[in-house]
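Researcher: Structure prediction, please.
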Amino acid sequence: MSDAPNFLTPWLPEVADLHDPELSTRLQQLLDNKTKPLGSLGQLESLALQLGQVLGTEAPRLQAPQMLVCAADHGLAARGVSAYPSDVTWQMVENFLAGGAAVSVLARQHGLALTVVDCGVRHDFGTRPEPAPGAARLLVRKVGPGTADASVGPAMSEAECAQAVRQGREVVASLPGNVLLLGEMGIGNTSAASLLLAWCSGRPVAECTGRGTGLDDPGVARKVAVLEQVMARHAGLRDPAQALAALGGFELATLVGAVLQAAAERRVVLVDGFITTAAVMLACALVPTVRQRCVFAHQSGERGHALMLQQLQAQPLLSLGLRLGEGSGAALAWPLLQSACLVLAEMASFASAGVSQA
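Model: Predicted structure follows.
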C-alpha cells in the first residue's frame, strides 16, 4: 500500500506480494521441458508464467471470466474536447445492452459475461427486466449525473471519488470467477486519462493527448489547450487520490476500485486500452502490488498509451492499432490467456512424449 495516507486509505485493501521463487522456478521448469526449443513460444511463455504466479498454481485454470464496462459522463466534455456529444455515452450503453456494440459481439464470441455499470451517466435508464441468459446486464451505481468541469474545480469531491472506488470494489466482490476484463464508456474520458498520465509521469500535456474519438488537428490543439488549463488549475495535487478526484471520472474511479478488489481476491486483471490503463496506473500508484496481477491486452493507437505502458513497465500482448475502448482489445486478447494455460496443462514434455532433448 502507498506509504503516505490519503482520503482513499480507508477503502484500500491489502494486496499481498505474489513473489514466490519456488513456484516461479517450478513453472519455468515446466515450460522449459515442453516439447519445444527453449523460449520458442515467446511472450506466451511469459504469460503462462504470470498466470501461474497470480493464481498460485502450476496448473492455472481461468474460470467464469467477467467483462466489466464502466460508463459515465464528464463535465469537461462541454469544453469541446471530444468529436462526439455527451449523449453518445448513454446511447452506447443502450447499444451494449442490446448486444450491438463491438464489445458485445466479442463477449458473445468468447463466452465472456458482460456487466455494464452506470457509474454516472447523465441519463435515467429506468427499471429493466432481468436480461436473457448470455445477455449483458446493467448495474446502476450512479455517483452523480456526470462529473463537474475539471477546468473550473475538481471533477469529483473526495466523498464522490471514495464512493465510486467503494462501489467498484463491491461490484467485483459480487461477481464470480478469477479473471476480470476491463472496459469503459464515457465521452470525454480520453481527456481525463491524458490528464492523469500527465500528472503521474510529469510529461507535458501535449505528449499525453491524442485524437480520442477522432478529432482533427485543430480539434486536438483545442483539446490540448483546455487540458493545459486544467493542469494549471490543479497544479498543487500531492497524491494519487487527489489526482483521481480532481482530474478523473466516475467510471475511472469505479474501475480503480474494481481493480483493487480483483487484485485483493487474486484474480487476473486483463487491461484494455488507454482509459482502463489509466485506472490501473492510479490503482498501482495507490497499492503497488496490484501491478503483479495485471495483463495488458494491447497497445492502442491513442497517443499516450505507449507512455502509460512504459510508466507501468508493461509489455502488451497485441498491437492492432485499436482505439475503440469498451473492452474490445481485452476481449480480443482473451484467447491468448486460454492458450497460455493450455500449454502448461496439455503440452507434452520431452520425457512424456519420448522426444530427445538437446
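Model: Residues 328-346 form the longest helix (19 residues).
Researcher: Thanks, that helps.
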